[in-house]
Amino acid sequence: MLAAMAANPESATEASDAELAGRVRKGDRAAEAELFRRLAPRVRLYGLRHLRDPAAADDLVQDVLLMTFDSLRAGKVREEERLTSYVLGTCRRMAIGLARSTARRQRLLERFGPELAPAAWTHEEPTLDLPRLARCLEGLPERERTVVVLSFYTDRGSAEIAAELGLSPANVRVVRYRALARLRGCIEARA
Predict the structure, then answer these.
(1) Which of 92, 127, 135, 136 is a good FRET partner for 30, with 20 to 30 A between their CA atoms?
(2) How far apart are CA 160 and CA 166, in angstroms?
(3) What is the pLDDT, as a whole number, of residue 14?
(4) Residue 3 — very low, low, confident or very high, per pLDDT cuts 50/70/90?
(5) Sign of CA dihedral 53, 56, 61, 65
(6) Angle at 52 between CA 49 and CA 46, to 5 degrees
C-alpha cells in the first residue's frame, strides 16, 4: 500500500480537497470515497449542533454529500479550492430547510392533531353461536354439507373435492357458494 502511494503522488490521502474535487468531476470513485471520509464527520457535527438529533444529522450527511458529489460531477462547483465552504453552506441551507419543515409539521399537528387522531375502535367481534351453526349445517342437503365440510374442516381444494365426489371443480365452487349463502341466511335468521 505504501509503495503504491509512493508511486502515485496524487494518492487519495495526500491530495488536497480541491484536487480530490477535480478528480470527482472526472468520475474518480476513490476520490469520492476519500472526500466522503474527510467531509462526513464535519457535516455530522454541524447536523448534531443545529438539528440536535443523531438520525437527522446522519440524514444531513447523506443529503449534503450526495448533493455535493452531484454538483461536482456536473461541474457546478466553481471554486473547488473552497469546497469545504461550499459543503458547509449546503449544510446550513439544508439544516434550515429541515428545521422549517419540522416546525411546520409540528404547528400543523398542534392545530389539526386532535381532529386527525383516529376514533377509538369500539367494534366488537360478533360471537359465533356454535349450536346454531351446527343445526344450520345439518339442515343443508348432503352434497352441500359434504362440500362445506371437506372445504373448511379438512382444508381441501376444489380439484380434490371434485375428484372425490365425481364433480367438476367449477361445480364444486358453485355448490360451496350456494351452501355458504344458505348457511349465512340460516344463521342470520331470527329464531
Answers:
(1) 92
(2) 10
(3) 82
(4) very low
(5) negative
(6) 30
Q: How far is CA 137 from CA 156, 187, 190, in A?
A: 18, 10, 16
75: phi then psi, degrees, rounded to nearest 5: 75, 25
CA dist., res. 176 & res. 84, Å (int): 72
CB under 8 A, 24+ apart: contacts of 183-191: 183/133, 183/136, 183/137, 183/140, 183/148, 186/132, 186/135, 186/136, 186/139, 187/129, 187/132, 187/133, 187/136, 191/132
Position 176 pLDDT exceeds 60? yes
This prediction has a pTM of 0.51
Overall size of the chain counted in residues: 191
* Listed residue (68, 70, 93) closest to 82, CA to CA: 68
What percent of the chain stands above pLDDT 70?
A: 87
